[in-house]
Amino acid sequence: MNTHETYIKRCIELAKNGLGTTYPNPMVGSVIVANGKIIGEGWHKKAGEPHAEVHAINSVKDKSQLKDATIYVSLEPCSHFGKTPPCADLIVRNEIPRVVIGTVDPNHQVAGKGIERLKNAGIEVTVGVLEKECQELNKRFFTFHNQKRPYIILKWAESQDGFIAPSPKPNHERAPIWITNTYSLQLAHKWRSEEQAILVGTQTVLADNPKLDTRNWFGQNPTRIIIDKEGRIPEDSFVLDQSVPTLIFTTNKHNENKENCTFEILDFNQNIVPQLLQRLYEHRLQSVIIEGGTTTIQHFIDLNLWDEARIFIGVISFHSGTKAPILQKENPIKLRIATDELLILRNHD
Q1: How far apart are CA 296 and CA 332, in angstroms?
Q2: Catalytic residue among 5, 49, 53, 308
Q3: How many other C-beta atoms lie within 10 A of the C-beta of residue 13?
Q4: Which family does it belong to (predicted)?
Q5: Catalytic: 136?
Q6: DSSP alpha helix (H) spans, 62-138
Q7: What CA–CA distance (Å, rounded) separates 168 from 313?
Q8: DSSP type of residue 63
Q9: Any alpha helices (H) in the chain, and if so which ranges?
Q10: Residue 33 and residue 52: Cα distance in Å, rounded?
Q11: Per-residue model confidence (pLDDT) at position 170
Q12: Residues 115-145: pLDDT tens digits?
Protein backbone atom coordinates (compact mmCIF):
# COMPACT_ATOMS: atom_id res chain seq x y z
CA MET A 1 0.00 0.00 0.00
CA ASN A 2 1.53 3.32 -1.09
CA THR A 3 1.45 6.54 0.91
CA HIS A 4 -1.64 7.95 -0.82
CA GLU A 5 -3.54 4.71 -0.21
CA THR A 6 -2.55 4.68 3.46
CA TYR A 7 -4.06 8.11 4.06
CA ILE A 8 -7.20 7.50 1.95
CA LYS A 9 -7.73 4.30 3.95
CA ARG A 10 -7.62 6.46 7.07
CA CYS A 11 -10.18 8.80 5.46
CA ILE A 12 -12.50 5.81 4.95
CA GLU A 13 -12.09 4.75 8.59
CA LEU A 14 -12.97 8.26 9.75
CA ALA A 15 -15.95 8.52 7.39
CA LYS A 16 -17.54 5.35 8.79
CA ASN A 17 -18.16 7.24 12.05
CA GLY A 18 -21.01 8.96 10.20
CA LEU A 19 -22.90 5.81 9.19
CA GLY A 20 -26.61 6.45 9.68
CA THR A 21 -26.28 10.13 10.64
CA THR A 22 -25.22 11.95 7.44
CA TYR A 23 -28.28 11.34 5.20
CA PRO A 24 -28.94 12.69 2.64
CA ASN A 25 -25.24 13.53 2.49
CA PRO A 26 -22.54 10.90 1.93
CA MET A 27 -20.05 9.73 4.54
CA VAL A 28 -16.75 11.52 4.04
CA GLY A 29 -13.42 11.49 5.86
CA SER A 30 -10.46 13.84 5.47
CA VAL A 31 -6.83 13.79 6.56
CA ILE A 32 -4.23 16.57 6.26
CA VAL A 33 -0.55 15.60 6.03
CA ALA A 34 2.55 17.81 6.24
CA ASN A 35 6.16 16.61 6.29
CA GLY A 36 5.04 12.99 6.47
CA LYS A 37 2.84 13.50 9.55
CA ILE A 38 -0.92 13.79 10.01
CA ILE A 39 -1.62 17.29 11.32
CA GLY A 40 -5.42 17.27 10.98
CA GLU A 41 -8.38 14.92 10.65
CA GLY A 42 -12.13 15.16 10.35
CA TRP A 43 -15.30 13.52 9.13
CA HIS A 44 -18.79 14.63 8.19
CA LYS A 45 -21.07 14.00 11.15
CA LYS A 46 -24.53 15.21 10.17
CA ALA A 47 -26.28 16.91 7.25
CA GLY A 48 -26.28 20.68 7.72
CA GLU A 49 -23.14 20.56 9.83
CA PRO A 50 -19.55 21.17 8.62
CA HIS A 51 -18.12 18.78 6.07
CA ALA A 52 -15.09 16.55 6.64
CA GLU A 53 -12.63 19.04 5.09
CA VAL A 54 -13.84 21.81 7.40
CA HIS A 55 -13.33 19.66 10.51
CA ALA A 56 -9.89 18.57 9.27
CA ILE A 57 -8.70 22.11 8.55
CA ASN A 58 -10.12 23.42 11.84
CA SER A 59 -8.25 20.68 13.73
CA VAL A 60 -4.85 21.89 12.46
CA LYS A 61 -3.22 23.82 15.28
CA ASP A 62 -0.60 25.63 13.21
CA LYS A 63 -2.43 26.88 10.12
CA SER A 64 0.86 28.03 8.52
CA GLN A 65 1.59 24.33 7.84
CA LEU A 66 -1.34 24.19 5.41
CA LYS A 67 0.65 26.01 2.70
CA ASP A 68 2.94 22.98 2.40
CA ALA A 69 0.39 20.24 3.14
CA THR A 70 -1.63 17.64 1.27
CA ILE A 71 -5.31 17.20 2.07
CA TYR A 72 -6.76 13.74 1.51
CA VAL A 73 -10.50 13.26 1.16
CA SER A 74 -12.48 10.10 0.39
CA LEU A 75 -14.97 11.94 -1.86
CA GLU A 76 -14.58 14.92 -4.18
CA PRO A 77 -14.89 18.24 -2.29
CA CYS A 78 -18.18 20.01 -2.98
CA SER A 79 -18.25 23.09 -5.18
CA HIS A 80 -21.78 24.37 -4.55
CA PHE A 81 -23.58 26.25 -1.81
CA GLY A 82 -25.94 23.92 0.06
CA LYS A 83 -26.50 24.12 3.79
CA THR A 84 -22.75 24.79 4.06
CA PRO A 85 -20.27 26.72 1.84
CA PRO A 86 -18.22 24.90 -0.84
CA CYS A 87 -15.30 22.90 0.52
CA ALA A 88 -13.34 23.41 -2.70
CA ASP A 89 -13.32 27.16 -1.99
CA LEU A 90 -12.16 26.52 1.57
CA ILE A 91 -9.19 24.50 0.32
CA VAL A 92 -8.28 27.24 -2.17
CA ARG A 93 -8.63 29.94 0.48
CA ASN A 94 -6.27 28.09 2.82
CA GLU A 95 -3.73 27.73 -0.01
CA ILE A 96 -3.35 23.96 0.40
CA PRO A 97 -1.23 23.02 -2.64
CA ARG A 98 -2.14 19.34 -3.07
CA VAL A 99 -5.43 17.41 -2.90
CA VAL A 100 -5.78 13.63 -3.12
CA ILE A 101 -9.32 12.35 -3.74
CA GLY A 102 -10.70 8.83 -3.42
CA THR A 103 -13.53 9.12 -5.94
CA VAL A 104 -15.60 11.61 -7.92
CA ASP A 105 -18.96 12.63 -6.41
CA PRO A 106 -21.89 11.18 -8.47
CA ASN A 107 -24.24 13.97 -7.38
CA HIS A 108 -24.91 16.12 -10.47
CA GLN A 109 -24.43 19.24 -8.32
CA VAL A 110 -20.77 18.28 -7.86
CA ALA A 111 -19.72 15.55 -10.38
CA GLY A 112 -16.28 16.87 -11.27
CA LYS A 113 -16.98 20.54 -10.62
CA GLY A 114 -15.08 20.48 -7.32
CA ILE A 115 -12.03 18.96 -9.01
CA GLU A 116 -12.24 21.55 -11.79
CA ARG A 117 -12.45 24.38 -9.25
CA LEU A 118 -9.30 23.12 -7.49
CA LYS A 119 -7.33 22.68 -10.72
CA ASN A 120 -8.34 26.14 -11.93
CA ALA A 121 -6.83 27.53 -8.74
CA GLY A 122 -3.49 25.87 -9.56
CA ILE A 123 -3.83 23.08 -7.02
CA GLU A 124 -2.27 19.69 -7.79
CA VAL A 125 -5.13 17.16 -7.78
CA THR A 126 -4.88 13.36 -7.72
CA VAL A 127 -8.13 11.40 -8.22
CA GLY A 128 -9.03 7.71 -7.96
CA VAL A 129 -7.01 6.46 -4.99
CA LEU A 130 -8.73 3.36 -3.53
CA GLU A 131 -11.64 4.34 -5.75
CA LYS A 132 -13.61 1.08 -5.40
CA GLU A 133 -13.26 1.16 -1.62
CA CYS A 134 -14.45 4.77 -1.49
CA GLN A 135 -17.46 3.94 -3.67
CA GLU A 136 -18.25 0.91 -1.49
CA LEU A 137 -18.17 3.19 1.56
CA ASN A 138 -21.01 5.21 0.02
CA LYS A 139 -22.80 2.37 -1.80
CA ARG A 140 -26.16 3.86 -0.75
CA PHE A 141 -25.29 7.34 -2.01
CA PHE A 142 -23.89 6.02 -5.32
CA THR A 143 -26.87 3.71 -5.94
CA PHE A 144 -29.30 6.54 -5.21
CA HIS A 145 -27.65 9.02 -7.60
CA ASN A 146 -26.61 6.58 -10.35
CA GLN A 147 -29.63 4.25 -10.40
CA LYS A 148 -32.28 6.70 -9.15
CA ARG A 149 -33.49 4.33 -6.44
CA PRO A 150 -32.57 3.44 -2.85
CA TYR A 151 -29.99 0.81 -1.97
CA ILE A 152 -32.06 -2.31 -1.23
CA ILE A 153 -31.24 -4.71 1.61
CA LEU A 154 -33.31 -7.89 1.94
CA LYS A 155 -33.39 -9.23 5.49
CA TRP A 156 -35.12 -12.19 7.04
CA ALA A 157 -34.68 -14.96 9.61
CA GLU A 158 -35.54 -18.55 8.83
CA SER A 159 -35.71 -21.80 10.76
CA GLN A 160 -33.43 -24.78 10.20
CA ASP A 161 -36.08 -26.26 7.93
CA GLY A 162 -36.63 -23.10 5.87
CA PHE A 163 -39.66 -21.34 7.38
CA ILE A 164 -39.94 -17.69 8.47
CA ALA A 165 -42.99 -18.41 10.67
CA PRO A 166 -44.82 -21.50 11.97
CA SER A 167 -48.39 -22.35 11.04
CA PRO A 168 -50.65 -19.94 12.94
CA LYS A 169 -52.46 -21.23 16.00
CA PRO A 170 -56.09 -20.34 16.85
CA ASN A 171 -56.37 -16.96 18.59
CA HIS A 172 -52.74 -16.22 17.80
CA GLU A 173 -51.51 -13.08 19.56
CA ARG A 174 -50.23 -10.34 17.25
CA ALA A 175 -46.57 -10.61 18.18
CA PRO A 176 -43.33 -11.66 16.48
CA ILE A 177 -42.18 -15.28 16.55
CA TRP A 178 -38.49 -15.13 17.44
CA ILE A 179 -36.28 -17.44 15.38
CA THR A 180 -32.91 -15.93 16.30
CA ASN A 181 -31.11 -15.20 19.55
CA THR A 182 -30.89 -11.85 21.33
CA TYR A 183 -27.48 -11.04 19.79
CA SER A 184 -28.90 -11.37 16.28
CA LEU A 185 -31.89 -9.25 17.30
CA GLN A 186 -29.59 -6.50 18.55
CA LEU A 187 -27.56 -6.65 15.33
CA ALA A 188 -30.75 -6.31 13.28
CA HIS A 189 -31.66 -3.19 15.26
CA LYS A 190 -28.15 -1.79 14.70
CA TRP A 191 -28.72 -2.28 10.96
CA ARG A 192 -31.98 -0.35 11.20
CA SER A 193 -30.13 2.61 12.70
CA GLU A 194 -27.82 2.62 9.66
CA GLU A 195 -30.51 2.79 6.97
CA GLN A 196 -33.06 5.43 6.07
CA ALA A 197 -36.15 3.25 5.68
CA ILE A 198 -37.61 -0.16 6.53
CA LEU A 199 -40.41 -1.84 4.57
CA VAL A 200 -42.94 -4.57 5.37
CA GLY A 201 -46.17 -5.80 3.84
CA THR A 202 -49.69 -6.11 5.22
CA GLN A 203 -49.41 -9.70 6.39
CA THR A 204 -46.33 -9.00 8.51
CA VAL A 205 -48.14 -6.15 10.30
CA LEU A 206 -51.29 -8.25 10.80
CA ALA A 207 -49.40 -11.23 12.20
CA ASP A 208 -46.53 -9.64 14.14
CA ASN A 209 -47.61 -6.06 14.93
CA PRO A 210 -43.95 -4.95 14.59
CA LYS A 211 -42.57 -1.64 15.86
CA LEU A 212 -39.82 -1.43 13.20
CA ASP A 213 -37.67 0.71 15.51
CA THR A 214 -34.17 0.62 17.02
CA ARG A 215 -35.16 -0.05 20.63
CA ASN A 216 -32.27 -2.53 21.15
CA TRP A 217 -29.64 -0.16 19.76
CA PHE A 218 -28.79 3.52 20.13
CA GLY A 219 -29.62 5.26 16.89
CA GLN A 220 -32.23 6.97 14.78
CA ASN A 221 -35.37 5.06 13.82
CA PRO A 222 -35.75 4.50 10.06
CA THR A 223 -38.77 5.79 8.15
CA ARG A 224 -41.41 3.03 8.15
CA ILE A 225 -42.74 1.96 4.75
CA ILE A 226 -45.94 -0.10 4.85
CA ILE A 227 -47.72 -1.77 1.93
CA ASP A 228 -51.42 -1.96 2.84
CA LYS A 229 -53.33 -2.40 -0.41
CA GLU A 230 -56.84 -2.70 1.05
CA GLY A 231 -56.43 -0.78 4.32
CA ARG A 232 -56.57 -3.92 6.47
CA ILE A 233 -54.09 -2.79 9.13
CA PRO A 234 -55.84 -2.11 12.47
CA GLU A 235 -55.68 1.44 13.85
CA ASP A 236 -54.05 0.21 17.08
CA SER A 237 -51.03 -1.23 15.21
CA PHE A 238 -47.63 0.09 16.32
CA VAL A 239 -46.79 1.21 12.78
CA LEU A 240 -49.68 3.69 12.92
CA ASP A 241 -48.76 5.19 16.29
CA GLN A 242 -47.30 8.36 14.64
CA SER A 243 -44.09 8.04 16.69
CA VAL A 244 -41.91 7.66 13.58
CA PRO A 245 -42.31 9.05 10.04
CA THR A 246 -44.37 6.43 8.20
CA LEU A 247 -45.42 6.05 4.55
CA ILE A 248 -48.40 3.77 3.84
CA PHE A 249 -48.95 2.70 0.23
CA THR A 250 -52.54 1.73 -0.51
CA THR A 251 -55.47 1.89 -2.97
CA ASN A 252 -57.72 3.57 -0.43
CA LYS A 253 -58.13 7.21 -1.46
CA HIS A 254 -60.11 8.10 1.65
CA ASN A 255 -57.31 7.87 4.20
CA GLU A 256 -56.38 11.15 5.81
CA ASN A 257 -52.74 12.02 6.46
CA LYS A 258 -51.78 12.54 10.07
CA GLU A 259 -48.66 13.76 11.79
CA ASN A 260 -45.81 11.40 10.84
CA CYS A 261 -48.27 9.24 8.88
CA THR A 262 -48.65 9.76 5.13
CA PHE A 263 -50.88 7.72 2.79
CA GLU A 264 -49.98 7.42 -0.89
CA ILE A 265 -51.81 5.68 -3.72
CA LEU A 266 -50.20 2.99 -5.89
CA ASP A 267 -51.65 1.24 -8.94
CA PHE A 268 -51.84 -2.33 -7.68
CA ASN A 269 -53.01 -3.49 -11.13
CA GLN A 270 -49.40 -2.91 -12.21
CA ASN A 271 -46.23 -4.26 -10.64
CA ILE A 272 -45.87 -2.15 -7.52
CA VAL A 273 -42.12 -2.59 -6.92
CA PRO A 274 -40.93 -0.11 -9.61
CA GLN A 275 -43.64 2.35 -8.50
CA LEU A 276 -42.58 1.94 -4.89
CA LEU A 277 -38.91 2.53 -5.63
CA GLN A 278 -39.76 5.63 -7.65
CA ARG A 279 -41.73 7.02 -4.71
CA LEU A 280 -38.93 6.27 -2.25
CA TYR A 281 -36.51 8.04 -4.60
CA GLU A 282 -38.84 11.05 -4.71
CA HIS A 283 -38.86 11.03 -0.89
CA ARG A 284 -35.02 11.17 -1.05
CA LEU A 285 -34.66 7.86 0.81
CA GLN A 286 -31.24 6.44 -0.08
CA SER A 287 -31.59 3.00 1.50
CA VAL A 288 -34.32 0.59 2.56
CA ILE A 289 -34.37 -2.70 4.46
CA ILE A 290 -37.06 -5.06 3.15
CA GLU A 291 -38.03 -7.04 6.27
CA GLY A 292 -41.04 -8.97 5.14
CA GLY A 293 -42.87 -11.05 4.63
CA THR A 294 -42.02 -13.73 2.12
CA THR A 295 -44.35 -12.47 -0.63
CA THR A 296 -43.03 -8.91 -0.36
CA ILE A 297 -39.37 -9.98 -0.36
CA GLN A 298 -39.92 -12.43 -3.21
CA HIS A 299 -41.24 -9.62 -5.44
CA PHE A 300 -37.88 -7.85 -5.16
CA ILE A 301 -35.94 -11.08 -5.75
CA ASP A 302 -37.96 -12.02 -8.82
CA LEU A 303 -37.35 -8.60 -10.37
CA ASN A 304 -33.67 -8.75 -9.42
CA LEU A 305 -34.14 -5.43 -7.62
CA TRP A 306 -31.93 -5.91 -4.59
CA ASP A 307 -28.35 -5.10 -3.66
CA GLU A 308 -27.71 -7.10 -0.52
CA ALA A 309 -29.36 -9.97 1.37
CA ARG A 310 -28.84 -10.70 5.06
CA ILE A 311 -30.29 -14.02 6.16
CA PHE A 312 -30.29 -15.35 9.71
CA ILE A 313 -30.69 -19.10 10.23
CA GLY A 314 -31.73 -20.03 13.76
CA VAL A 315 -31.54 -23.38 15.56
CA ILE A 316 -35.32 -23.86 15.75
CA SER A 317 -37.40 -26.00 13.35
CA PHE A 318 -41.11 -25.41 12.58
CA HIS A 319 -41.92 -28.40 10.26
CA SER A 320 -44.69 -26.34 8.64
CA GLY A 321 -45.69 -22.72 8.19
CA THR A 322 -44.67 -19.82 5.93
CA LYS A 323 -41.79 -20.78 3.68
CA ALA A 324 -38.77 -18.47 3.48
CA PRO A 325 -38.10 -16.51 0.28
CA ILE A 326 -36.30 -18.40 -2.49
CA LEU A 327 -32.91 -16.89 -3.31
CA GLN A 328 -29.88 -18.56 -4.86
CA LYS A 329 -27.36 -18.53 -2.01
CA GLU A 330 -24.14 -18.74 -4.02
CA ASN A 331 -20.85 -17.95 -2.28
CA PRO A 332 -22.32 -16.10 0.71
CA ILE A 333 -20.26 -14.62 3.49
CA LYS A 334 -20.97 -16.87 6.49
CA LEU A 335 -20.83 -15.54 10.04
CA ARG A 336 -21.70 -17.01 13.43
CA ILE A 337 -23.81 -14.94 15.82
CA ALA A 338 -23.60 -17.21 18.87
CA THR A 339 -26.01 -20.06 18.00
CA ASP A 340 -27.23 -18.46 14.76
CA GLU A 341 -25.73 -18.50 11.30
CA LEU A 342 -25.75 -15.30 9.25
CA LEU A 343 -25.46 -15.36 5.45
CA ILE A 344 -24.64 -12.14 3.61
CA LEU A 345 -24.96 -11.98 -0.18
CA ARG A 346 -24.30 -9.19 -2.65
CA ASN A 347 -26.10 -8.89 -5.97
CA HIS A 348 -23.52 -8.04 -8.63
CA ASP A 349 -25.88 -8.27 -11.61
Answers
A1: 22
A2: 53
A3: 15
A4: In the C-terminal section; belongs to the HTP reductase family. In the N-terminal section; belongs to the cytidine and deoxycytidylate deaminase family.
A5: no
A6: 87-93, 113-120, 131-137
A7: 20
A8: G
A9: 3-15, 52-58, 87-93, 113-120, 131-137, 139-147, 182-194, 202-208, 272-282, 294-302
A10: 15
A11: 75
A12: 999 999 999 999 999 999 999 999 999 999 9
